[in-house]
Amino acid sequence: MKAALASSLCLCLSLAGWGGAPRAVAQALPPADTIRLRQHLRFLTTTPQPRNYQQPAVLDSVAGYIVRELRAAGASAVGTQPYAVRGQTYRNVLGSFGPKEGPRLIIGAHYDVCGDQPGADDNGTGVAALLELARLLGQQSALPYRIDLVAYTLEEPPFFRTSNMGSYVHAASLKAAGVPVRGMIALEMLGYYDDRRGSQHYPIWPLKFIYGSRGNYVTVAQKFGNGRFGRQFARRYRQVATLPVKRFKAPAWLPGIDFSDHLNYWKFGYPAVLLTDTAFYRNRSYHQATDTLARLDLLRLSLAVDALLAALQGGE
Q1: What pLDDT score was predicted for residue 202?
Q2: Domain around 120
Q3: For 214, phi and psi rounded to 5 degrees?
Q4: What Rg, from alpha-carbon coordinates, does the chain have?
Q5: How many whole angstroms from its chain centre is CA 127?
Q6: Of 213, 210, 216, 223, whose CA–CA distance to 274 is shortest?
Q7: The domain that contains 279 carries what CATH number?
């Protein structure tokens, strides 16, 4: 049954990288801290008003929090990238680790929400993971290449798929400056897991016979023709992870493949992937008031961060 389905879906799905690779996280690396992850999520989900585009003062307070955390982690060149939309100023937040020169890897997560909701998973978990990764990177004596961490604004509607997205502004600035980029990793919803059968959904229903019906894994998603960066990252991430990881490679038109900030790096010719818990294909509280901290699995979120740190240490 699985073989037949895999054959029928070969035009829209690649199963490369699913081999039985070892999954031991390097013991020398410090682990992610669930207490710190919870602290970040508590701050993000208890702002006076929701952190949406209609609350620029709240977004500024979140940007300030991220700046302080990046500086405390030891990032260099910490700052903001302001830009104007509809007469209001919004800000990306940036911080760097590793060598100053040479091609850089971009890791980003958006900090705004859609409408009036707490946005714990979407995308509080992405931001919390970014900040915990920053703390762990700051403890490394040497990194094989420069890593830029970026927290984006205005990913959500009504700006999604427009040039007003913070990730579009950032990607465009890299292109304009001729900055060499190894690749980009978008952290988008990483904290919701469900071990029950039938908890995982897909854009094409037969995929459940290949990937399973339990929402207990992290996905590295990318489009066809994304270059070797995505292939190498997916393989390395899966090798070092201690939670299930599934690689999903498909055409960009398949719903969900480009539903985050990585899509804007594609527009400028940079390879980019999405690291996610599959968002609305699993979490039924997507863009709802019920997207709360209480529904998240912080242990598995921490394991996702552990694997990311270990994968980054792999170098070329």
Answers
A1: 95
A2: 2-312
A3: -100, 130
A4: 18
A5: 8
A6: 223
A7: 3.40.630.10
Name the more confident of 15 and 82.
Answer: 82
Residue 4 has pLDDT above 50, yes or no: no
For residue 224, give the H/E element and its range: none
State residue 221 phi and psi, 5-degree precision.
-110, 140
Averaged pLDDT score across all residues of the chain: 91
Q: How far is CA 146 from the centre of its chain?
A: 18
Q: How far is CA 197 from the centre of its chain?
A: 25
In the structure, what pLDDT confidence band is assigned to residue 13 with cuts at 50, 70 and 90?
very low
Q: Which residue bears the tokens 């529904």?
A: 295
Q: Which long-range contacts (CB under 8 A, 24 or more apart) does 281-284 make?
A: 281/200, 281/201, 281/202, 281/203, 281/256, 282/192, 282/193, 282/194, 282/199, 282/200, 282/201, 282/215, 283/121, 283/122, 283/189, 283/192
Tokens of 22: 């070892």
Number of domains in the chain: 1
Burial of 303 (0-12, 13-18, 19+ CB in 10 A): buried
pLDDT band at 309 (very low <50, low <70, confident <90, very high): very high
82 phi/psi in degrees, rounded to 5: -80, 150
pLDDT digits over 241-260, tens only?
Answer: 999 999 999 998 898 999 99
Amino acid residing at 26: A
| Per-residue CA distances from 301 to 156, 312, 313 (Å) | 22, 17, 19
Distance CA 108, CA 128 (A): 11
Query: In whole angstroms, what separates CA 42 from the centre of its chain?
Result: 19
* Bridge-based pairing state of the strands 76-85 and 146-152: unpaired
Neighbours of 53 (CB within 10 A): 23
Region 68-90: mean pLDDT is 98
- β-pairing, 181-188 with 245-250? unpaired
Gap between the Cα atoms of 256 and 303, Å rounded = 23
